[in-house]
Write a structure and sequence with these properties.
Blueprint lengths: L5 E5 L3 H13 L3 E5 L2 H10 L4 E5 L1 E2 L2 E2 H11 L4 E6 L4 H9 L4 E4 L4 H29 L3 E2 L2 E2 L3 H13 L6 E5 L5 H10 L8 E5 L5 H9 E2 L11 E2 L1 H4 L4 E5 L6 H13 L1 E3 L6 E3 L3 E6 L3 H6 L5 H7 L2 E5 L8 H16 L6 E2 L1 H8 L6 H15 L4 E2 L29 H19 L4 H8 L3 H10 L10 H6 L4
Parallel strand pairs: 1-2, 1-3, 3-6, 6-7, 10-17, 10-18, 11-14, 14-17, 19-20
Antiparallel strand pairs: 4-5, 8-9, 12-13, 15-16
The structure holds adenosine-5'-triphosphate and magnesium ion (MG).
Amino acid sequence: MPPTGSILIVDDERSMRELLRIALTRAGHQVTVAESPAAAKLELDARDFDVVITDLKMPTGSGLDVLDGVKAARPHTQVVVVTAFATPETAIAAMKRGAYDYLTKPFKIDEIGVVVERALEKRGLLRDNLELRAELEGRFRLERMVGKSPAMQRLFELLRKVAPAKTSILLEGESGTGKEMVARALHHLSPRASGPFVAVNCGAIPEALLESELFGHVRGAFTGAIADRPGLFSAASTGTLLLDEVGELPGQMQVKLLRVLQERKVKKVGGTVEEEVDVRVVAATNRDLEAEVERGAFRQDLYYRLNVIELHLPPLRARREDVPLLVDHFLRKHAAALGRAIAGIDADAMAALCDYDYPGNVRELENLIERAVTLESGDRVSRASLPELKPRRPSEPPAASNELPPEGVDLDRLVAELERALIVKALERTRGVRKDAAKLLGVSFRSLRYRLAKLGIAPIDADSDAETDDKPGS
Ligand SMILES: Nc1ncnc2c1ncn2[C@@H]1O[C@H](COP(=O)(O)OP(=O)(O)OP(=O)(O)O)[C@@H](O)[C@H]1O
Ligand SMILES: [Mg+2]
């Protein structure tokens, strides 16, 4: 079923108005007519139209004024300009001022039908896009993090809850899942936000220096200690201290850290006095700390002390719904940073990104996007600007058999997987041209678009997509 919508026809010539009204009504659209720019304005003030078709030269005003009025008040309404006196200049002027397309009289009724359909597609894409943007701004964002997957939504909720307390928090997650970002968010959402945020990588400091780095030292404590020096616990006073890669702490330091956490006091290396510290400790690890405890590599008492609240960051491959959102987020971030005008990403590029496993998690995705924005010479990220991305589970035969194993199946998941695999293949074969992919799959363009969105493969800014897909001769 081709898309239908609400259409306003503006033409001073009655026969033309009627012709269009009959043809478009027959095609299933809701049609309103106006015989002058002024009458059109009344209609436009009263309600929203998907598409406006306006004559260019009317005795009571110009179609360009109608166009300007629509673009100012309803920027997502698509305008098609019709003219009998087409010169390249008027057509270009109309397009420059934001018209979707123009038609030259006389035209065939089929022609206008096709143009209206395409304009409606574009209108629909813009609407989806707007909704996505609106969502991005609100619900799906916490501090500088984005995420719409249920796992991330739960995490955001939890973060808001635990941020205000002073309780120690343990963040677990693979490399690049956003542990440091979460630690920063915890800091910014807490009453300590005006204090310092200090991060220390426990795995990167030589063992001999760790104690002095964390707790400070007094003059003469060891060779080279020429003056008293505060440690990172003091530096983080009234703020938050992130102990990153806490699993790397040597046994000796684990004992000392435990004491500090229990007593909330630190003693400088070589010093005698203990000083109170007011610090919230957030620890992070990409190891399974509980397993480390079991095999005796990490102290159990310290584990319990750090692990008052445990937050787990799922790997990106376990929350693929977040990929399109993150792609959009990073596109904008890096396009702005690099001063590039990037309008969006092609459907096949997005499909490849959605189908990848990300051993390096969000960091890897961000690097891919930054690289693509740098390499891209056009105004959209194309598949060619991304490196080879090995799709996950090389086309595992979609459980197409009609066997039902004794333990049962997850029907929705199986069907969704099959659907995703075939859609990705079709998009790859058609190099992202969705209209052709839809044909290959025997579904309408609209239905494919819906499925892409549902599976989270939807391109964010499909703005020019209608053109790439549908422009005759491209
Ligand atoms: N949910 C998110 N939204 C936006 N950006 C994110 C998100 N998660 C991670 N990032 C980005 O991904 C990169 C990696 O995040 P971060 O440094 O917090 O990961 P990490 O878990 O600390 O990694 P590692 O274990 O390697 O230290 C950062 O550049 C961060 O900006
Ligand atoms: Mg980190």
